[in-house]
Amino acid sequence: MSQRNRWFDWAMALVILVATGFSPAMADDLAPFAGQAGRVAISGGTAHIPVMKEAAKQIMQRYPDIQVTVAGGGSGVGIKQVGEGLVEIGNSGRKPTDEEIAKYGLTMFKWAVDGVGVVVNPKNPVTELTKAQTKAIFAGQIGNWKALGGPDKTINLYTRDEASGTRAVFWKKAIEKGAISSSANVVVSNGAMKSAVAGDPYGIGYVSVGHIDASVTPVALDGVTPTLETVKSGAYPVSRGLYSNTKGEPTGLTRIFIDFLFSPTGQAIAAEKGFVAVK
Amino acid sequence: MSKIAEPWVRRLLGLMAAFSVAVTVLMFGFMVTLGLPLITEGTFFNMFTGPWQPGQGAYGIAPMIVGTAVIAGLGMAVSFPVSLGCAALISVLGRGWLPILLHRLVRFMTGIPTVVYGFAGIFLLVPLVREWAGRGSGLCILSAGLLLAVLIAPTMILFFTDSFATVPRSYLQAADALGASPVQKLIHVFIPCAWPGLVNGVVLAMGRAVGDTLIALMIAGNATAMPGALTEPARTLTAHIALVVAADFDSLEFRTLFACGIILYLCTTLMVVLTRGIGALRERRP
């Protein structure tokens, strides 16, 4: 117990040091949380999770009376749960439909832009595909890596469940509403997609650009590699906004949290996690 | 127990029993009520034939029914001989410290959370299966079936050893008097005498195999296509419910889940009836 407290003290000291010593301007972004107490429950889009977690960590380290909980589930879940009042903030990796906005009275906050990139295992020599090839792969028409200049191995498809905003954007913009083979493996989050492809030398999937790291290789689509820069410049076409939605106008702690996402610190977190900041 | 308290305790226990019966019946009623629109709209029977393509309005759960049956069946097929052998070693054939160690290990295994098996399976079994099979991602029926076999084995082993323990001493002494070897005793005395218990264990393990969600969700790949080979991914009914519930709350897709629930419920009921039937058979034995 005392051991843990000591660690906590050190962590606190470090946070205060970082906050006050290195970036005095940014430290003020957390100031609106002063004197606040309560809980902000967040769920939905799994692409958002790294940013939400980092924001929650910074807030809770400085103000222990505030509880920020972050859950996944996919964009569909985020929209439904916030609409039904189960959480304060429902994240979505796609714009909620007009029907959803009307039904639940949602207010949308788009705080970053993200791309959805096709990824393969780093051992895979195939790092470039055309849109037509991508469509054929996900429809199950191309079933072997050999046809694409890779090894003579069956292609293992990975896709996301129906609630995924990442899937919705990929389906609409990368494969132009083409079919996704029903023999594709289904994974439930961006993180799970990344680990599935990272562990499968013959796998192919798609993941939020913010989640791409050394464990997977991004595949260039029609010659454009999905990165923060190409998404920012607009050269990479499969992009989408990252939204945080609230039921009606946010108030109290939820309002402060949303404002924090748009503050320099919040936007810096988004950029650091691989997304394009909107400010 | 004083005479005054006795009727009250009886009533209390009766109340508790009635409560658990009511919960079970209500649950079935709940599923049927919510699944009823499917039957009246005539979509109920389409669900057992078509594919699962919610985008195109096709809500077939046949691939999931097949997936459940195949994964549970494979798990049983692998687990039954292993469990029987293990139980025989514990009860009959083992010498010295081996049966005691084995028994303790099996009891310990029953306490390991399913997710731990699933987690270990992803990192240990899945890559192995992928390499062995030479095709597919390793997230497939074979991996899920093998892992499920590990999961249900302790249930069966404990049931088997318990029923071996009920074999009357006198029968064993008679076998000894005839000069039977341990293996002969196993085959001619233990198994014939304990078979209702063995079947009980199998039925319960089958129930666990059909009802398991996590192994299938983590290991089987969850593809909605009708599985054609053991190295292909498949989705079970339970994993299907978990995946769709996570995504949805009110749509036709969501409604079809009640059909999945009803099927699982009926499966369990059938197994319980089977167990009871066997129990009744046993009592009628001379």
UniProtKB/TrEMBL annotation, chain A:
**Has UniProt tagged this entry with the keyword Cell membrane?**
no
Asked whether the keyword Transmembrane is assigned, the reply is no
Query: Care to name a GO molecular-function term for this sequence?
Result: phosphate ion binding
* Key words, A-Z: Phosphate transport, Signal, Transport
Q: Name one Pfam family in it.
A: PBP_like_2
**Signal peptide per UniProt:** 1-27
Report the residue ranges that make up the PBP domain in this protein. 35-264
Which GO BP terms sit in this record? phosphate ion transport
CDD domains found in the cross-reference section: PBP2_phosphate_like_1
SUPFAM superfamilies assigned: Periplasmic binding protein-like II
> InterPro entries, from UniProt?
PBP_domain, Phos-bd, Phosphate_ABC_transporter
Q: What exactly does this protein do?
A: Involved in the system for phosphate transport across the cytoplasmic membrane.
Q: Belongs to which family? A: Belongs to the PstS family.
Q: What is this protein called?
A: Phosphate-binding protein
Organism from which the protein derives: Desulfosarcina ovata subsp. ovata
UniProtKB/TrEMBL annotation, chain B:
Tell me the SUPFAM superfamilies matching this sequence. MetI-like
Domain of life here?
Bacteria
Q: Does the entry feature the keyword Transport, yes or no?
A: yes
Annotated Gene Ontology cellular component terms: plasma membrane
State the Pfam families in the record: BPD_transp_1
Family of the protein in this entry = Belongs to the binding-protein-dependent transport system permease family. CysTW subfamily.
Q: For this UniProt entry, which segments traverse the membrane?
A: 12-40, 60-93, 105-129, 141-165, 256-275
- What compartments host this protein? Cell membrane
Q: Which residues form a coiled coil?
A: none
Specify where it is mainly localized: membrane
* GO BP, one annotated term: transmembrane transport
Write out the entry's keywords from A to Z. Cell membrane, Membrane, Phosphate transport, Transmembrane, Transmembrane helix, Transport
Entry keyword Hydrolase: no
Q: Which PANTHER family match?
A: PHOSPHATE TRANSPORT SYSTEM PERMEASE PROTEIN PST (PTHR30425), PHOSPHATE TRANSPORT SYSTEM PERMEASE PROTEIN PSTC (PTHR30425:SF1)
Q: Where is the ABC transmembrane type-1 domain?
A: 65-275
What name does UniProt use for this protein?
Answer: Phosphate ABC transporter permease
Q: How does it sit in the membrane?
A: Multi-pass membrane protein
Output the InterPro entries linked to this UniProt entry. MetI-like (IPR000515), MetI-like_sf (IPR035906), Phosphate_Transport_Permease (IPR051124)
